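Question thread 4412

I'm putting together a teaching handout and wanted feedback from people who do this every day. The idea is simple: show students a protein as raw sequence, then show them the structure tokens that encode its fold, then repeat with a second protein so they can compare. Below is the first pair exactly as I plan to print it.
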Amino acid sequence: MRKLYEKQEVLFAALWIAAYCVVMAPIKERFGFGSIWMLLALLVFAGAITAFVKANHAEEKYGLAGWPRETKRFLYFIPMWILATGNLWDGIAPSCQRTELLVSVLSMILVGFVEEMLFRGFLFKALLAKDRTATAIVISSLTFGIGHIVNLFAGQASFETFIQIVFAVSWGFILTMVFYKSGSLLPCIIAHAMIDVFSLFGADNAVADQIYVGATIVTAILYCTYLARLKTTEEAAHSGEA
């Protein structure tokens, strides 16, 4: 694994993503997010990723070393925080109760960590080292969105999956740009976890869901355009900017 990481980092990332999809899709289909099996599988992935990062002293590389400096430059990530609450815009109606809800919440938090590490951490960083910045951002964002096609194999309707892909691609651009410009993956992990956790509590309203998707697309365009004009945290520090 270490040799593959050093010689073929993009392939290394792709294999991690493939393994995640292959393992998690059937577990989700058979047991759902409220199952202890889902939680255990996610714990295994999260633990393996954490162990790998620590063993290779790659916390800084993957944005786990600390919170971004000068968050004012990124508008304190307010557009992202507001958008992350979108699943609650149509009201609150928990999808399950008690123990199942607790397990689901824990699973969703782990999904936020694991998926950010796979798509923003492993894949984006690997692409960034090999390709131009714009190419790395686009591929990472699109892969994150298209990766949700795995839900088709978990029994989800095709139209619903298509909307989810569009939604995920938009979020993919936001999260990738935030990570690239700020140098920290922590805000992305928190935002991702918020989206997934709140999805357990939101009421099922088709109109509100469409509004949320539309707001996500518009916000992605505006916020990413703003972020694109900023220097990265490293560049700003080097130039002495506030």
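The second pair follows. I'd like the answer to focus on this one:
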Amino acid sequence: MAYGKRFKMAVRIARFQNCYGPEGTWQGGREKAPAAICRKIAQARQSDEIEVWGDGSAVRSYTYIDDMLDGICRLMQSDLEGPVNIGNPEYVTVDELVATAAAVSGKHIKIRHVEGPVGVHSRNFSNARIESLGWRAQWPLRRGIEQTYPWIAAQVANSTAQV
């Protein structure tokens, strides 16, 4: 912003809200919650239990990659300047995220809540600026997980087969 002001250059800053989807990081501790949950479920057998940090009540929103890319393109082709939030207004608890991924997998999964970093309980995130450009998230969580889970399950199967 300082550089833009000094040199009279338009600066657009896209602020992302928990982006996920196929081809993303799915292991190693740097992955977002949807990928981590999909991986844990892919590794689990029917009726297994997976560990989830916290009590499962933390609320988040997850934005599918296609929505994120559409938002970035609209922002860069606009006259908006400064920070612009791009995120899905569908908020779910961690337990609801697990239930969605388990339903997509076709597995009955139990949750064991364990101590671990959970961050703030909920975030306040306004998409008003990007929505002023006509952008709206088109991918509800279930639809995005339906694309993401099979890809992660294939990565898990491939990594297990190579061991």
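Top answer:
Good format. For the second protein you could add a caption like this: The chain has one domain: 12-22+29-154. The beta strands are 12-16, 19-20, 49-53, 59-61, 63-64, 82-86, 91-93, 110-114.
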